[in-house]
Amino acid sequence: MKNKIANLRKPLKLSQKELAEKCRVTRQTINAIENDKYDPTLQLAFDLARVLQTTVDELFESE
Length: 63
Hints:
By secondary structure, this protein is mainly α. The chain is built from five helices and two strands, in the order E-H-H-H-H-H-E. The chain has a single domain, classed as lambda repressor-like DNA-binding domains (434 Repressor (Amino-terminal Domain)). A two-stranded antiparallel ribbon has the order 1-2.
């Protein structure tokens, strides 16, 4: 499953650390998700979508 987190995060001028703080996870978690090394929980996916002002469906796409 690919994600668009980095592509959506950068125009909002959010660092990985800032996004992590808003989602109550570590920067390493955001980095791992962006690099397709970790699949977020459903709750974290919803939190990411909320902060990035998009939907979960738009945030993740199946390969």
